[in-house]
Structures are given as structure tokens and as C-alpha cells.
Amino acid sequence: STWSFFFASGEAAYVDTLTVFIALMLVGRWLQQRMLERNRAQLLADDGTQSLLTREVRDGVVRIVHCIGVEEGDELLIAPGDLVPVDLEIDEAVFCSLDWIDGESRPREFAPGQLVPAGGFNGGNRAFTGRAATHFAASSLVGLLGTDPATGSDGPLATQWWSRLSRFYVIGVVALATIGVTGWWWRSGDALRAIEVGTAVLVVTCPCAFGIAAPLAYELVLTQLRRAGVFVRVGDFLDRVRAMTRIVFDKTGTLTTGMLEVRDTDALFALSDAQIGILYSMAARSAHPKSVAVRRALEGHHAARFLDVDVHEHPGHGLSTTLDGIHYRLGAPGWAGPSSQTHEDLIFSADAVVLATLRTDEQLRPGAHDEIDRLQRDGYELAILSGDAQHRVTELGALLGLRSDACIGSHTPEQKADYVRAHDPARTLLVGDGLNDQVAMREAACSGTPAVNRPFMASRCDFYFVSPGLHPVAQVLRASGTLARVVRRILAFAVAYNLIAVSFALAGWMKPWVAAVLMPLSSLLTLAYTVMMLSRERAPWRS
Length: 543
What we know:
Blueprint: H1 2-41, E1 53-58, E2 61-66, E3 75-78, E4 88-90, E5 94-97, H2 99-102, E6 108-110, E7 115-116, E8 121-122, E9 128-132, H3 140-144, H4 161-167, H5 169-188, H6 191-204, H7 208-227, E10 230-232, H8 237-240, E11 246-249, H9 251-255, E12 256-262, H10 266-269, H11 273-283, H12 289-298, E13 312-314, E14 318-323, E15 326-331, E16 346-350, E17 353-358, E18 360-364, H13 368-377, E19 381-385, H14 390-400, E20 407-408, H15 413-422, E21 428-431, H16 438-443, E22 446-449, H17 455-458, E23 463-465, H18 471-506, H19 512-533
Parallel strand pairs: 11-19, 11-21, 19-20, 21-22, 22-23
Antiparallel strand pairs: 1-2, 1-3, 3-9, 4-7, 4-9, 5-6, 5-8, 10-23, 12-18, 13-14, 14-15, 15-16, 16-17
Helix pairs in contact: 1-6, 1-7, 5-6, 6-18, 6-19, 7-18, 7-19, 11-12, 18-19
């Protein structure tokens, strides 16, 4: 009866311990899935090309149709701001922005009979029609929107070595317990002692680091990044990004905001109050990016008042108005007035006499210069890869303190991909905002975007950010390093603890009740350390 009592007690302890162990592992898996779902909930919805819509004109009726059904010869209506889904043959002069294709933010004029390429946007202030030169399946837009295989991750922890190790943890513990029971029974012939050793092995092992603490560490880091406006899409990104040594930035919309600004406002404020009022009234009536830049530059000036003037817009040239018998023009050099300076792109004139020569350029993102300096000090190799004109890319790079050979311009999407392939793609993080970056992003090991207003971009990158500056790039890199250190420490502690504790248990130096105290204590210590090191107040990447 005594034997039966102790055997039953040992069996009960074994079953209870195994139940607790399995419960801990299930909780760990639940935390992993919870982290995955919470991140997925933050993603921008994307249905691929199936979600693209356009306006089709048929039998005098305009209908909203799916782009996937567009056939060659169909007549499409492209409203201001609309995407051109296929190469479109036009019968009138139009302005379209190709920044998704070549990174150039300035609208480009297309003459009657020309083809507007797929991926362009109507950058004018009126709608236009055109005939589809191809069916949608042959559109270059399909290739630009192609799904990135890297985003097909089956979970946030799918590729981490410790996650794979945890799958074999139960088998290993049970095997050790079996070895302990068998060895002690064979050595001593005492079944009770053998069961006691096996029970101690099962109880003292701590799966917390594998099942809970490591997933908790990832969850804490991802939560802190989300609070900072950074959203990680692909779970293993925080592991892969640690290996990056090279960061390649797109120019338009990434290093810059995509909006134009007047580079030197002195020429504007040298005008008389009457001239400023006229210039402001002309610029305020146009949606052209250069006109918007002039209007924004004049805002706040006491003479910038909206006057009742009749302003005419001349596509490809600029604006004109006549007031008190004087003919004013704001527009391109050569049309608005004679030009002698190399980089001027805007002239304000009165009766062909130049009143102000202006230069517009894109606005840098807030703090871009400081963030580029910080990344260089951290040892990263930086480069600009853009479809914009080479001289503009070089000028921007010089402004940010980058070498001229690291400023690459005038590249098509395919040339961008070739550049990435030729420059250590396995250690390259590419940050861009246009469809012209998608092909190159497939070649880079990691990718990110600030283009949250373009779901095709955010849904195909490893991470995206919503803050106006560039600091999220450095935040992600620092967060990844901190996470790695914390995970390594908790796993080192878990390995050391389990080796020592199991060794003591197998040697017969540990009673089951002692093991029952040590296991939850070690779990609490591991969790407490994880929370302490990755809490919001201590997060070093927030600074």
C-alpha cells in the first residue's frame, strides 16, 4: 500500500507538471499569435491589382470599372489625381506626374498623340480622356505592383532559431526525465527514488524564456515602435535588419516631402507690395506645384492679399494676367522672360521685364540632415538612388553631407534593381516611396516606406512609418539591436539555469518541492528582466 501511495503520488506529480508545462507552452504560442494579429491589424488593406479602379467611357456613359478588365482600345477618363492604369494614347496636351515611375515630382507635359505611361498620375487641374494602348495584363503597372515573396511570412516568429528550438524543448525535457528515471532505477533499484529524480527534472525545467519571455520581448518592442509611428509588417524583419550595413534612400517623397519650396525667398521679398499682391493672387489660383510653392513662400507677408484679377493658365508655360495695362507672367524661363542663370526654373515678369528669378526645389523631411549624420556616425554606408535628374540628386546629397559617388540619379526601376544587386543586396535596407522602387525592393534584404497613403507600398515593405521625419529608420535599427541583446541574455539565463538545475536534479541533489519553488521563481525573474529592459521609459531607441 505504501508503494502504491508513493507511485500514485509520483504519477500525479508527473501528470500535473506536464500539464503545467504544456500550458506554459500554449500561453507562449498564444502570445506569438496575438503579436502577429495585432501587427496585421495595423496594416493597410491591399487587394493587389484586383482593387484598382478606373473610369471607362462607353456609349457616352462613364462607368467605374476594375482595371483588370481594361482592354486595348477602351476609352478611359482620367480625373485630376487619378492613376493611369495602362499606356494611354491622348488627343490633347496633358500634365501627368511620373513620380511613381521615375521619382520625378514635377508634372510632365505630354503632347497630343503621345503615350502617357502606366503608373502616371493626372497632375493637371482637369480631366482628360485617352485610349488604352494595351490590355491591363500587359501593363507595366502589373509588374510594378507585383507581390513581394518576402512578405509571405507565415508568422512573426517563423524564422527565429529559438522559436524552432522551443518545438523540441518538450521532447528534450521528457527524454532527460526518462533517462533520469531509467538510470536511477537501474543504478539503485529504487523505483521511488527514480521517480523522484524524474519528477524533479520535469518540474525544475523552465520553458518561460522560450515560450513567453522571448515573444513578450518582441511584443514590447513592436508596441513601442507603433507608439512612435513605426509599423513592422514582416515578423522576422527585426532579426534580419541587424545584419544591414548599407542603407539606400529614394529621393522624392523619402528624403524629401515631395512638395516644392522656393529656395531663396530674398528675390520675392525684394518686390514691391503691389507686385507681391499680384504675384500672390496669380499663384493662389493655380494647383501647379511651383505655383503652390510661391504661394506658400508669400504666406504671412502683409502684402500677400487675394486680388480680383483674371488669371490664365498656359499648360507647360505658366500663368499670366493683365492689370492696369501691364501684362504679368509667372512661369518658365524663356516664356515668362529671358533667362541667363543655369538652375532657375521660374520667372516673374511685367511686360517681359524680369522682376524676380526664382528657383524651386523639394523640401527636405524634418530633421533629415541630423538623421543622415547619425546613421553615418553609427557606421552605416548611405546612398541615394533616384529616378530624378542626376544634378538634383547630387545637389541634395551634398546638402546632406553625402559623397557624390553615393548619389545615383536618372535610374529607371530596372536600373535601380541592377544597382541594388551589384551592391551587397543581402546587407541592404532600401527605403523608398514610389512604385519605381518596388523592383529594387525585391532585390534588397530589407525595405521600408513612408508612403502610407499608397497602400501598394506599405503592404509590400517590411515596415512603414507615419511620422514626417526620417528618425523611424534609426529607431528600427536601434530597436532591433536592443531586442537582440535582451533576447540573448534571457536565453543565456534560461540555458544556464536549465543546465545547472537539470544537472542537480539528475544527480539526485534536488527534491521535487525545491524544483517546484525554483521553476516559477526563474520564470518570474526572466519576465521581470524582459519587461524592465524593454519598458517604455527605458526604450533607448526612443531618444
